[in-house]
């Protein structure tokens, strides 16, 4: 079996192999493939010349704690034909892809896992989480007049998705630069409608919030069906604007409930209702998975909220690597060097990916038996160090 890079000439073969792997039929037109970077694609080719597996990556920016932007590989389109599974094809594709990511100088790789049991063995760990919030409209009174006020001066305008693509792109780009865990959405995604609403060109209404100077500073993309208003996503860096957009959705006529599809953990909306049970959380799930490929560079690039020193013994079974690192944080900056000192924590590289953005507490993984703490204070110190100023959240689908 050969693992080889793809070119534009492989587009149809790549798409056909991927669709077959997932038991689907090609869609025409397929907007997602218009965003593919086939110079980052891989084909697994059997001795008879038939393509039997695929893998690819997008070039994104990821926002780290401290509002630091770094290039990352967004792994996608990973599939193996049912006739060739459990023969090492997937492992060969993933190993070659990680080598290619390193060769590009990217310290991190990220993905959305179709099945949670697959990617930990390749060094990825779940790092951001999301949930659905369903609100009964007749119970959605706010706890106090102040909670329901639009604290942010400005106005809301309702537009169609086709009328405001540039506004969405600009507002999202400002939002993602300030939110840890957020990914960039390159212009070609918006231009081609490659992704889920509101990136896709599917019909949607968009409530656009503008500040008192008329500058768009938030939006909520939504649709109505059978008495339910479904919000695809609410994008703003301002909590007051988020409240205004939520209130707009909840005050809409001809509905009985509002579904907010993509809420971060600890979303404040439920706490704003007079009836806490007015909003029911469901479908809590992992979203962005993170994989570290250059541990010292990854740890020294992100921002830090607390000072301290921690020795990490990190094992990477898939790449047959192991390293012990002294992490020292002072005034929000970190140094990370190899050391032979006794470790505070021993962990798999996938667990380091889970805690990296601050969305998973190291102590949780210690209690779960994933991470070994070598003394009683180690887990608490790691919690203090890896905590982010805001819970990381990723909305982008790829």
3D structure, described in words:
By secondary structure, the chain is of the alpha+beta class. It folds into 3 domains: 2-106, Aminopeptidase, CATH 3.40.630.30; 130-285, 3-Layer(aba) Sandwich (Aminopeptidase), CATH 3.40.630; 294-386, 2-Layer Sandwich (Nonspecific Lipid-transfer Protein, Chain A), CATH 3.30.1050. Helix content is 25%, strand content 33%. The chain has 12 helices and 19 strands. A 7-stranded mixed β-sheet has the order 1-2-3-4-5-14-6. It has a 7-stranded mixed β-sheet with strand order 8-9-10-11-12-7-13, sandwiched between helices. It has a 5-stranded mixed β-sheet with strand order 17-16-15-18-19. Strand 10 (216-225) and strand 11 (228-235) form a beta hairpin. It is globular, with a radius of gyration of 22 Å. Belongs to the acetyltransferase Eis family. The active site is at residues 119, 398.
Which characteristics define this entry?
seven-stranded mixed beta sheet, GNAT family N-acetyltransferase, Aminopeptidase, 398 residues, 25% helix, alpha+beta, Acetyltransferase_Eis, 3 domains, 19 strands, Nonspecific Lipid-transfer Protein, Chain A, transferase
Helices and strands, with pairings:
Elements: E1 2-5, H1 11-21, H2 31-34, E2 42-45, E3 51-64, E4 68-80, H3 89-103, E5 108-112, E6 125-126, E7 129-136, H4 145-148, E8 155-160, H5 165-176, H6 187-192, E9 205-210, E10 216-225, E11 228-235, H7 239-250, E12 257-263, H8 269-272, E13 279-286, E14 288-292, H9 295-301, E15 308-316, E16 321-330, E17 333-338, E18 345-348, H10 349-356, H11 362-367, E19 372-373, H12 378-386
């Amino acid at each position: 079996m050969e693992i080889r890079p793809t070119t534009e000439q492989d587009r149809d073969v790549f798409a056909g192999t991927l669709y077959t792997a997932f038991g689907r039929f090609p869609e025409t037109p397929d907007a997602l493939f218009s965003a593919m970077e086939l110079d980052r694609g891989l084909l697994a080719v059997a001795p008879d010349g038939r393509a039997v597996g695929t893998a690819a990556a997008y070039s994104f920016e990821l926002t780290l704690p401290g509002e630091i932007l770094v290039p990352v590989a967004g792994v996608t389109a990973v599939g193996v034909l049912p006739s060739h599974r459990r023969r090492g094809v997937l492992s060969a594709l993933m190993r070659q892809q990680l080598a290619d990511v390193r060769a590009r100088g990217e310290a991190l790789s990220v993905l959305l896992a179709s099945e949670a049991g697959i990617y930990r063995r390749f060094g990825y760990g779940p790092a951001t989480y999301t949930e659905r919030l369903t609100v009964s409209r007749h119970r959605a009174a706010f706890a106090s007049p102040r909670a329901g006020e639009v604290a942010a001066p400005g106005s809301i305008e309702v537009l169609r998705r086709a009328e405001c693509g540039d506004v969405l792109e600009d507002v999202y780009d400002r939002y993602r630069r300030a939110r840890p865990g957020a990914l960039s959405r390159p212009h070609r995604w918006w231009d081609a409608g490659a992704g889920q609403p509101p990136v896709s060109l599917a019909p949607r209404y968009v409530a656009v919030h503008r500040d008192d100077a008329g500058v768009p500073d938030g939006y909520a993309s939504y649709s109505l069906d059978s008495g339910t208003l479904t919000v695809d996503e609410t994008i703003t860096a301002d909590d007051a604007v988020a409240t205004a957009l939520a209130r707009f959705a909840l005050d809409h006529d001809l509905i009985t409930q509002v579904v907010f599809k993509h809420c971060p953990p600890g979303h404040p909306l439920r706490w704003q209702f007079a009836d806490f049970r007015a909003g029911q959380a469901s479908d809590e799930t992992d979203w962005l998975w993170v994989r570290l490929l250059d541990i010292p560079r990854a740890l020294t690039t992100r921002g830090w909220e607390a000072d301290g020193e921690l020795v990490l013994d990190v094992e990477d079974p898939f790449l047959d690597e192991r390293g012990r690192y002294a992490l020292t944080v002072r005034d929000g900056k970190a140094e990370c060097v190899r050391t032979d000192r006794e470790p505070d924590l021993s962990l798999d590289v996938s667990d380091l990916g889970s805690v990296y953005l601050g969305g998973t507490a190291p102590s949780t993984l210690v209690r779960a038996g994933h991470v070994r703490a070598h003394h009683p204070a180690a887990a608490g110190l790691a919690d203090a160090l890896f905590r982010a100023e805001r819970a990381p959240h990723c909305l982008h689908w790829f």
